[in-house]
Specification:
Largest sheet: 7 strands, antiparallel
CATH superfamily: Glucose Permease (Domain IIA)
Shape: globular
Number of domains: 1
Structural class: alpha+beta
Oligomer: single chain
CATH topology: Glucose Permease (Domain IIA)
Bound molecules: zinc ion
Length: 199
């Protein structure tokens, strides 16, 4: 009986997948950075890519603090869902919207060892969704409509913008355990293009 229920369940899941193919981040249309602006104006203090951040010497072997997408966190039990972008300006550097959009969530994101609470600001940009995180408490409100280049907050004491990119329709940020979540996109290429203008 249990086996029968199991088979019916698996069959139903199979049919569901056939009718509704799962769209993974990789299948999504590539986001063209052409019409976007970089989220920070200043030049970057450290590199963004895996290879460059490892070879730059800022972080030690087996560090749980590398800035690149997918880097190990929490003693290798979790992966870094974003890219950490360190502007030369440091604390207080303004963070700007890549494109027009609507604020869909503002919430505490990460609390530093010294007790400082940093915030995430989730913005629906239409074709994609961005979490601009590790900001000081922003002045902006949920549901606010924002323009491209508008300041949505400033860099906190972590001296970095933690930047997460999601597929269209995403309504919340996530923590990455196990396989890469289907709605989470690697923003590295997009960011390299955007920041190539700041170098
Ligand atoms: Zn980060």
């Amino acid at each position: 009986m249990i086996l029968f229920i199991k088979s019916v369940f698996l069959f139903s899941v199979g049919m569901f997948l056939l009718v509704n193919p799962v769209t993974t981040a990789a299948d999504q249309i590539k986001i063209t950075p052409k019409d976007l602006v970089a989220p920070l104006s200043s030049k970057l203090k450290y590199p963004l890519t895996k290879n460059e951040s490892i070879s730059c010497g800022r972080w030690g072997n087996k560090s749980q603090d590398y800035p690149y997408f997918g880097a190990p966190r929490d003693r290798n039990t979790r992966n870094h869902a974003g890219v950490d972008i360190y502007p030369q300006e440091g604390v207080g550097a303004p963070v700007k919207a890549l494109a027009d959009g609507t604020i869909i969530k503002i919430a505490p994101f990460y609390t530093r060892a010294n007790g400082e609470v940093t915030y995430g600001v989730l913005v629906n940009h239409g074709d994609f969704v961005v979490n601009y995180a590790e900001l000081k408490r922003p002045d902006i409100k949920v549901a606010a409509v924002i323009k491209q280049g508008q300041k949505i907050g400033v860099i906190s004491g972590t001296k970095q913008l933690h930047f997460e990119l999601y597929t269209k329709g995403t309504t919340d940020w996530l923590r990455w355990y196990g396989k890469q979540p289907d709605n989470l996109i690697d923003p590295t290429d997009m960011l390299l293009t955007l920041f190539s203008k700041n170098r």
